[in-house]
Structures are given as C-alpha cells and as structure tokens.
Specification:
Elements lengths: L8 H4 L15 E8 L3 H13 L5 E4 L8 H4 L3 E3 L6 H6 L5 H25 L10 E5 L2 H16 L8 E3 L1 H7 L7 E5 L2 E3 L2 H14 L3 E3 L4 E5 L2 E4 L3 E9 L16 E10 L4 H7 L6 E4 L5 E5 L5 E5 L18 H14 L8 E11 L6 E5 L4 E5 L6 H16 L27
Parallel strand pairs: 1-2, 1-11, 2-8, 4-13, 11-18
Antiparallel strand pairs: 3-7, 4-6, 5-6, 9-10, 10-11, 12-15, 12-16, 14-15, 17-18
Helix pairs in contact: 2-8, 2-11, 5-11
C-alpha cells in the first residue's frame, strides 16, 4: 500500500487511515460513471445522488479519494476564477451580466460548501476569514489600485474588495515593508484533505460506490475501460484535472503545471502575537509570481507558490512533487514576508500538478451526442470552482434548466496546446 499519509501535511493530519477502498473487479453497468475521486468527481456524485437517489453512480479512482490536488492544495475556498470578467463577457453568447453572474455563483459557492459541511458533519476547519493581499512595493500598489478600480467598475463595492492603508493592513498582520493591502471577505480557510475525505464518505452514505486503486485506461462514449473490467454508463464524466494528459487522446487538452507548498511547525502564541492573522484570513501579496498562505487551525503557516517547471510532454510523476530549490525559495519568501519566522522549523513540504487550459479558461460541459461530461482547467483556483462544477454537471445530466447551466463557462471549449516541443518552449 502506498504511504498516502506522506503525500502532504493535510494527508498526515486528516484523521483518516487512508486505507484504499476495494477496486473494481468485474464489468459494471451504471447510469453515471465518474473518472476521478477528487473534488470535481465527488461533488458531481454528491449532487446527483442527493437529487435522484435512484441513480446508479460509480466513481473510479486510480489511487484514493483526494490523492491529487483536492487533497494537497493551499486550502483556499475562494471566489477566484482563473479568467477575468472582461474575458468572460467576451465569450460567445456572453455579456457583462453573464460575467457578473459567474462571479456571483463563485461567491455563493463558498456558502454552499459551508452548508454541505454543516449538513454532512464534515469537520474540515472551515473558517471564513477572507483574504488579505499585502502590497509591498510601489509596483504592487499600482497593480492593487487597478484591481480594485476594475472590480468596482463591474459593480463591486468595498464590501467585496477594498484597498487598505498601511495602518489597516498591519492591524491584520505584521508583514514587512507593507504599503497597504487589499481585502476581500470572499474566501474561507479549509483543511482540504479533511474536506475531500469527508465528502467521499458523504457520497457513500448517499448510495454512490467509489472504486479506488482502479486505473482507467480509456474513456469513450458510454464506456470506461480499466484493467479489471469495463464500466458501461449512459453518462461518463471526466474529472481528472492535472492528470488528464495521462488519458489516451488528451495529452494536449491541458498542461499540467506544478505548485509546491511548505508547512511550519505549530507556532507558539508569542509568535502569533507578533505576526497577527488573528481571524485566520488567507494571505498573499501582489507580486506576479503567485504565492498563497493560510494560518491553520492547529497554528501552523502553510505557504505555497508556483515556480516548479512544466515538464516535457505533459509529464506527471511523483518525482515532480518535490523540488528542493523551490521549497527553499518558498521558505525564504515567507521569512521575507514575516521576519518573525526566521528560526522556525518546517515539518512538511509537498507539491502536485494542477491543470492549465490553453486560454486559461476553466470550463464545464456535457456533450449530449456522446454523453461525455467534463470539468476542469481551474489553474489552481479549484476548491470552490469544483463545487460549482459538480452542481452544474448534475443539472446538465438531469437536464434541469437552471441558472447554473447558463453561466458563460458552461460548454466553453479551449483550443488544444501545441504539440511538443512547442508546448514545452
């Protein structure tokens, strides 16, 4: 058995033995077959089963539920969407009203996650503390002002996103060289492995069967093939995100790019008194190279960012999960942000792939001709987006004429990435 507790801090502290569920061992007939037991697949199964308990639903997972990005991310349940409202408004058949509806649906998704967590009794350290984005250079200040002005031009107010003075920012946290900050309430901190494992258990309580240790070798209309058997289904949902390139014929669908994370030891109260973050907002700053952090429920800082390379031919491997130079850069960046952490001990470091479409536009859809549904391309903003995707797929499959299926990301098709070596270049 793979040492799944070693995947990340989250897996090590989720309170779940992480024992694999039984694998598929024979051919199977169901109504809906879902490939991938991360957030996308599990949310889809959850809403389908809740709406129609008579549906026969099977989830097929190569490893264990929450093995991938769903269990390893930075723990932000945010309203961030990888494309801007102006880009959403330019999509075919879309406009400014539709673009705002997309963002409103993302914001509502945070509350929907909270509702399910409460209803299903999933203890995942959910806390809505918002996000503070520190401003630490003049270039970042200009960038932040433009971001706030743009949001307000779309109809947002200070209740959605506001610019803080240096004094207001330091009242939240004592980040170094602070010129100010932005603040949005539209984010909650979570423990992602607790959420994904709790969601898997909830899905099973609703009558869905999850087959783990079941690698899918091909996916086709009405048919999913594994080494142990074939699954016939009216609908097949691809929920493979950063692992999509491993499926036949889908290597150029998205580019798997790695994001890496480090975690400190639990910090003493005296250190927290110096740092701040008392209401546990998630945090970043306005640099171009993305960073993200949170104060965990057990008093650590989890801090991640980009910087790991794209690997030739969309390679995905456990060997790519750990890059010592990137981990060192993350630790240096965190100390630069909070000098009080200079002598802190780090207990965990990990990484994993996320998926980037060619146009950086996440999408969800269902091909009625083939019965194949999909969702993904979240570009690292997937915790809340997967919930919206699951609800949308459930409505598409059940042919419910909801507002969700009219959002601009629905049925969007990103063009494929270039063949190698152009993709790598």
């Amino acid at each position: 058995m793979a040492p799944y507790a070693d995947l990340s801090l989250w897996h090590a502290t989720c309170g779940d033995p992480l024992l694999p569920r039984p694998a598929l061992d024979a051919d199977l007939d169901v109504d809906v077959a879902i490939v991938g037991a991360g957030f996308t697949g599990l949310w889809t199964a959850y809403y389908l089963a809740a709406a129609d308990p008579g549906l026969r639903i099977a989830v097929l997972e190569r490893d264990i539920a929450g093995f991938g990005a769903s269990g390893r991310n930075g723990g932000w349940a945010s309203a961030l969407f990888p494309s801007s409202r102006s880009k959403l408004a330019r999509l075919r058949g879309s406009d400014a009203v539709a673009a705002n509806a997309q963002i409103s649906a993302m914001r509502a998704g945070i509350g929907e996650i909270e509702r399910v967590v409460d209803e299903e009794g999933i203890s995942c350290d959910f806390h809505r503390g918002g996000t503070v984005g520190f401003i630490r250079t003049k270039a970042q200040l200009e960038r932040a002002r433009l971001e706030v002005d743009d949001a307000h031009a779309w109809g947002d107010t200070d209740d959605d996103l506001r610019l803080l003075s240096a004094r207001e920012a330091t009242e939240i946290a004592a980040a170094s060289q602070t010129l100010g900050a932005t603040y949005t309430p539209h984010c909650a901190r979570i423990h992602p492995a607790k959420l994904v494992r709790g969601l898997a258990a909830a899905v099973e309580r609703h009558g869905v069967t999850i087959y783990e240790q079941t690698a899918v070798t091909s996916l086709a209309p009405s048919l999913v093939t594994t080494a142990a058997g074939r699954v016939r289904a009216e609908y097949v949902v691809r929920a493979t995100e950063g692992y999509t390139a491993g499926l036949p014929g889908r290597r150029r669908r998205v580019a798997p790019v790695y994001s890496l994370v480090v975690a400190t030891e639990p910090l003493p109260p005296t250190t927290w008194d110096e740092i701040g973050l008392a209401d546990a907002p998630t945090f970043n700053d306005h640099r171009h190279l993305i960073i993200y952090g949170q104060r965990t429920a057990d008093g650590r800082i989890v801090f991640g960012g980009r910087g790991a390379p794209y690997h030739f031919a969309s390679s995905v491997s456990s060997g790519h999960d750990r890059v010592d130079d990137v981990f060192a850069d993350l630790r240096t960046t965190l100390v630069d942000l909070f000098p009080a952490l200079r002598d802190v001990r780090y207990t965990h470091a990990w990484g994993g792939p996320l998926s980037i479409p060619r146009d950086w536009m996440a999408s969800v859809g269902l091909d009625r001709t083939t019965g194949i549904g999909w969702a993904g391309g979240y570009v690292g903003d997937g915790v809340t987006t997967t919930n919206l995707a699951g609800r949308t797929l459930a409505d598409l499959i059940r042919q419910v004429p909801s507002d969700l299926i009219r959002l601009p990301w629905v049925e969007h098709r990103s063009r494929r990435w270039e063949p190698e070596p152009l993709r790598w270049l």
